[in-house]
Amino acid sequence: MDNSSSSSGVGVLDKTMSVLDALESGPATLAQLVRITGLARPTAHRLAVALERHRMVTRDPQGRFVLGPRLGELSIATGEDRLLAVATPVLAQLRDLTGESAQLYRRQGDSRVCVAAAERTSGLRDTVPVGSELPMTAGSAAQVLLAWEDPARVRRLLAAARFNENAIQSVRRRRWAQSVGEREQGVASVSAPIVGPGGRVIAAISVSGPIERLTRTPGRLHAQAVTSAAEKINEALHTQEPAAV
């Protein structure tokens, strides 16, 4: 694994960060950490256990390593979540442009969580309250969050998913996803990836609403608007400038 482009020159720090980076996408066994980071197995184990002692890493019920509570505490301490800061006005603009509810999802283990939303003020809505935990096995946002995952995780979740490998390949090719009645009967959605400064997909931006409005080909109506909103957020995250609306 070549980390030369992001090397700080402090070897142990770079190796530690590679472990945290690997866990950003979700739970990982020691074998998966070794494969993703390129570290020797004893090194990966030693660093993961040390991070666990500092609550930067913890274990899920299956014994896999996951990001720990200390990271969330540090994020709160900064007083600002950069993603939410730049995404919130873009979500409002996307809602106004499409006339549909807009959401931002992050992956959390084997689920996805709505971390921000801009809801329609009237009419029939598909409301997803902030904080809602939804499955990674149904819905266009789940497709997006899974599409660039480690192949082993993709295979595991596809076994129980409402979509298949062909859908995932299509998402990778066109960089947006659509779903019709996957997560909830009568609801359609369109989603696109949000890419962090490190090139990793860190979130999905979506619009959702009744099939009666979005039709059975919601991408035809809203893929351009959703992908444009995603690019606006991506640009702001990479340039560290507020997203223009």
TrEMBL record:
Gene Ontology BP term (one): negative regulation of DNA-templated transcription
Protein's recorded name: IclR family transcriptional regulator
Protein species of origin: Streptomonospora mangrovi
InterPro entries noted in UniProt: GAF-like_dom_sf, HTH_MetabolicPath_Reg, Tscrpt_reg_IclR_C, Tscrpt_reg_IclR_N, WH-like_DNA-bd_sf, WH_DNA-bd_sf
Keyword Ion transport carried by entry: no
GO molecular function: DNA binding; DNA-binding transcription factor activity
Start and end residues of each HTH iclR-type domain: 10-69
Residue span, IclR-ED domain: 70-239
Regions crossing the membrane: none
Domain of life per record: Bacteria
PROSITE patterns: HTH_ICLR, ICLR_ED
Classification via Pfam families: HTH_IclR, IclR_C
Higher taxonomy: Bacteria, Bacillati, Actinomycetota, Actinomycetes, Streptosporangiales
